[in-house]
Each structure stands twice: as structure tokens, then as C-alpha cells.
Specification:
Number of strands: 8
Strand content: 25-35%
Number of helices: 4
Largest sheet: 8 strands, antiparallel
Shape: globular
Length: 198
DNA sequence: GAGTAGATCGGCT
DNA sequence: GCCGATCTACTCG
């Protein structure tokens, strides 16, 4: 069951970041189906949050995707080599997004191993924002495409009980001043595919 | 296990 | 010109 448009239109991006835990991210490329359960996310609010590329509601070539209606993929390139995948949320003109930081592999493990050039199934396969995009074959080519289509989408999974949902500050956003202290990272307790503890 | 350097390039000032 | 929503390989111990 693919998530529908209305899921992505919630105006509180932290709600969506929380609710994405336990859902399943799926890609289909060249008939290779790969998927994983979302176990770690971070919320970014472009209007108020200095950690967001779109702060403060700044439209540029890179950020324009985030200003569109919720339900699209926002993918950007960093450190000269990594592609990071985000879910665009909220209404048109509100540049909010959720970074997907880790998934737990489910389908297509064979393809994921091949894309990652490794032969184990542990957090090094799909834990970490750049690792999961590589494992699922996501690149900037997918920037701006719909999450309701047939190349990349998110499905219903399970609803984690609230005592398993952990909250912390976000990773790698020290440049954001006091906004670096916001508790906008969510992850599943003791899940071995989460990128780092806390 | 912890700590650190190096890779590598698009976006923005 | 600087630096990044990161990862890997390598060191030391």
C-alpha cells in the first residue's frame, strides 16, 4: 500500500519525520526492486531552520524542489561524491523536507550488495544517508520526481510503539547555531541499522 | 574501539 | 574561494 498524497501535506514536518519510521522505501530501476524499512529520519524546516538549505525561504537552483507540493523526492549532491535523499513535505511555497538517514534492508538485498560492492548485511550496507541512496540506486537523477510514481515510493509498513521512538539532535549541522540543538532526529531504539547511537 | 585525513565537486558568497 | 545534512581507509593501541 503506497502512501497517498495527503500523508505528505502535513504542515508539521516533525510529524512526518516521526511517522515515516517503520514505513518502507522502495525503488524499482531496470526491473530491480529494492526496499528497506525506514529506521532513522531528520526534519528540516526551510522557513525557520538555519540547518535547511532553503533557510530562510530562499529559492535557488538547488532548493526549488523543496518549494513544491509535498510528495516529491529532493536529492542533492554533497562532499563531491554523495547523494542524499529527502522527502518533500507541506504545501506549495513551504520548503520543508525529511532526510532519510537509514533503512533496514528488506527486498532486493542481492542488488544492494552489488551496488555497495560488499557482501554483508549490516549497518554498513544501508545505515547512513549516503549508504542507503547507493544501495537503493538513488541519485540526483531522481530529484523532483513524484513519490507516487513507479520508480521510487514509500509504502505502509508497521507502526512502531511510541516507547521505541528515540529523539536526538541532528547529525552534522553544527554550522546552524542554536538550531543545531533542535531535537529533530528520530530513530528506532536499538535498531542495528541506525547510523550512530545516542 | 577511537581518532583523523583525504577524497572530490556543485552551490553559493 | 570556501565548505558541506558523508564515507572510507588507515593509524594506534
Amino acid at each position: 500500500m503506497k502512501l497517498t498524497k495527503d500523508f505528505y501535506l502535513d504542515q508539521d514536518v516533525t510529524n512526518i519525520a516521526k511517522h515515516l519510521l517503520g514505513k518502507v522505501l522502495v525503488t524499482r530501476l531496470d526491473d530491480k526492486l529494492t526496499s528497506g524499512i525506514i529506521v532513522e529520519t531528520e526534519a528540516y524546516c526551510g522557513r525557520t531552520d538555519r540547518a535547511s538549505h532553503a533557510f530562510p525561504n530562499k529559492v535557488t537552483g538547488r532548493t526549488q524542489t523543496m518549494f513544491k507540493e509535498g510528495g516529491l523526492a529532493y536529492i542533492y549532491f554533497v562532499y563531491g561524491m554523495h547523494h542524499l535523499f529527502n522527502v518533500v513535505t507541506n504545501l506549495v511555497g513551504q520548503p520543508d523536507a525529511v532526510l532519510i538517514r537509514s533503512v533496514e534492508p528488506t527486498q532486493g538485498v542481492k542488488w544492494m550488495k552489488k551496488r555497495r560492492r560488499m557482501d554483508r548485511v549490516d549497518r554498513f550496507l544501508t545505515g547512513g544517508p549516503a549508504r542507503l541512496t547507493q544501495a537503493l540506486g538513488i541519485s540526483v537523477n531522481f530529484n523532483g520526481i513524484s513519490l507516487l510514481g513507479d520508480q521510487i515510493w514509500i509504502e505502509e509498513g508497521y507502526q512502531p510503539s511510541s516507547n521505541l521512538i528515540m529523539v536526538s539532535t541532528r547529525v552534522g549541522v553544527d554550522y546552524a547555531g542554536t538550531d543545531a540543538q533542535l531535537p529533530w532526529r528520530y530513530f528506532l531504539k536499538e535498531n542495528p541499522f541506525v547510523s550512530k547511537g545516542l
